[in-house]
């Protein structure tokens, strides 16, 4: 019996059966729960003003009674232009044909390639089997290395089939990932070097045409992104999907430059109007034309905002200035 005021002794430990390990201690308070990859960061953010500005201006410019911003829909006809297509081999049929045509010059050339390139192919086989990366520059470099060893084969499928265990599926996945990244990176490059120059009307026509093209491709790819990621990871390729964010940020930059040009042309036009005599024949049509171009610039900015899922501080400021200018033009017409 414990003495009065003493602390009772702890109970004896529970004996473990079959050498089992003791239970783990409870997790510490505030311990990290998600150890997975961090979410990609972007300078784009949702706007508190963009939707309302679009609704008000659309009503005034087009006479509609929309009660909210019209989100840019995703076309059900969007083509899957960025996903890789696997070319399933018909090895059984190929083997049969090869058996029948053993004496043909084509078959002899295949056998010649097998012997001539055996050492090189075995080297590529090992390299592909062990290849893993999350660096897209390394991916493209390795893809170039592989193609340099296979490009001279008269019939790649027939030749590689002679090498047991050649990682054909990983080779196809490697090519798909490299082609996909090259295409997405080309979009970023095109947007970064896009020349934003007057006249504004022609500029908007060109950039909208390009935007409509890449928008369908990017959105189609985003719908299959998770599936593609799993396929790539199965073959130890961690694809850098931040390239999509770079496309959206670059598209916002081009849109902002178009708005700057629209405001610049309006200031230049206003300076010309101030020199004209009141009531001249060119004054009213010039204002009407300028207002339409300002609205077209704003409408394009809204479509880009919806596509990108947000805008940066520069775009936020420019859309506000553009909306005020459109309002001013409409009041003076």
UniProtKB/TrEMBL annotation:
Keyword Coiled coil included in the entry's annotation: yes
Origin superkingdom = Eukaryota
Would the keyword Coiled coil be found if you checked this record's keyword annotation? yes
Which InterPro entries does this entry report, sorted A to Z?
CHUP1/IPGA1-like (IPR040265)
Question: Which keywords are on file for this protein?
Answer: Coiled coil
Region: Disordered; residue ranges are: 1-43, 60-92
Q: This chain belongs to which protein, by name?
A: Uncharacterized protein
Q: Which species is this UniProt entry from?
A: Vitis vinifera
């Amino acid at each position: 019996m414990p003495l009065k005021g003493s602390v009772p002794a702890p109970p004896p430990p529970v004996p473990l059966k079959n050498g089992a390990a003791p239970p783990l201690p409870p997790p510490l308070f505030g311990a990290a729960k998600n150890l997975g990859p961090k979410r990609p960061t972007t300078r784009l953010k949702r706007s508190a003003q963009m939707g309302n500005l679009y609704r008000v201006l659309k009503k005034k410019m087009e006479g509609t009674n929309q009660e909210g911003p019209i989100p840019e829909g995703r076309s059900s006809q969007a083509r899957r232009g960025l996903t890789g297509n696997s070319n399933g081999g018909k090895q059984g049929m190929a083997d049969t044909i090869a058996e029948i045509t053993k004496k043909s010059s084509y078959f002899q050339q295949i056998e010649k390639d097998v012997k001539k390139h055996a050492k090189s192919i075995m080297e590529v086989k090992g390299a592909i089997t062990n290849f893993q990366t999350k660096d897209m520059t390394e991916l493209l470099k390795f893809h170039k290395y592989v193609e340099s060893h296979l490009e001279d084969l008269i019939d790649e499928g027939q030749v590689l089939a002679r090498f047991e265990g050649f990682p054909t599926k990983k080779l196809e996945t490697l090519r798909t990932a490299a082609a996909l990244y090259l295409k997405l990176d080309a979009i970023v490059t095109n947007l970064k070097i896009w020349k934003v120059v007057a006249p504004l009307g022609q500029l908007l026509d060109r950039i909208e045409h390009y935007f409509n093209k890449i928008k369908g491709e990017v959105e189609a790819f985003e719908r299959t992104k998770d599936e593609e990621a799993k396929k790539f990871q199965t073959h130890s390729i961690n694809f850098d999907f931040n390239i999509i964010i770079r496309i959206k940020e670059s598209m916002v930059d081009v849109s902002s430059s178009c708005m700057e040009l629209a405001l610049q042309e309006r200031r230049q036009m206003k300076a010309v109007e101030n020199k004209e005599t009141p009531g001249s024949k060119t004054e009213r049509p010039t204002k009407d034309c300028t207002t339409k171009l300002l609205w077209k610039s704003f409408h394009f900015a809204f479509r880009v905002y919806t596509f990108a899922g947000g805008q940066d501080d520069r775009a936020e400021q420019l859309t506000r200035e553009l909306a005020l200018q459109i309002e001013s033009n409409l009041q003076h017409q």
